[in-house]
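Thought: the user wants the 3D structure for the chain below. I'll pass the sequence to the structure tool as-is, report back what it returns, then summarize two notable features.
Action: structure_tool
Action Input:
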Amino acid sequence: MRKLSILLEIIALALLALPAAAQTSTPDRQVAVTLERTPCFGACPVYTVTIYTDGTVVYNGERFVDVESEQTGSIDPSEVDQLVAGFEAAGYFDWNDEYTEMHISDLPTITTSVTRDGVTKSITRYAGDSSAPIALPYLENWIDVTAYTQQWTGKTSSLTNASGSTLITLERQACFGMCPIYTLSLYEDGTVVYVGIKNVAVTGVQVGQVDVGVVTMLSQMMTATGYFDWQDEYTTMTITDQPTVITSLSTAENYKQITRYDGDANAPVGLTWIEERIDLAVNSAQWVKLGA
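Observation:
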């Protein structure tokens, strides 16, 4: 028995001496994307999110969030690849490391990082620095949407008005099938920000430009059609499994947002026409149409 006891002790010591990788069967994983939101003067949510290459999501909530602790979730690894590719396509790796001029005080700071081919790029953006690329806040919010941090923060991240005041927005949401999921944000100067989420040709954030007159004319047509006089919602589901479309128009005098479920026959015919005109005005097919 004495010899057996000694033998067992030797085996135990040998196991302890083995590298951690030899003792566990957990897959190799690396950090792919991170997001950190810091405090502001008010009740800004304070938390960090780390997304690994294998799809693991680690959230740490600190203040002004629903969950103030560490939580773990998961997404499909292909979505992680899409995030990294989307950041690269938007130009993230060519931007400055900091945009931290405090033209407006008491706003939060957001730090992101993306690792591509073993190289990590990190950008710190103060929310009041208007010199930051217009796509950067959209990319930050895209991380939140992909990691579904809303389940812990209780906050919804906008993919239609992440950078300043938009004039017109369009959001097409999911349906039961392969409906394209994306958002469009149009600014008064003709800037267009597209965010492709799923079932689209281009996933991620793209910034385009149209003639200022196109945006102005579209705003005038929406107003003349009666957009501000319509209901805020047309969401009766007489036909199920259809997509929901959300539009908005913001002018100096008015702001209106309308949610339309595609199966609600009570929605004005003009509303569907407006949704289509927004798509046409910015040629969203260049990003949305699969196989194009």
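Final Answer: Structure generated. The helical segments are 2-17, 20-23, 77-90, 135-147, 150-153, 212-225, 269-282, 285-288. Residues 2-17 form the longest helix (16 residues).
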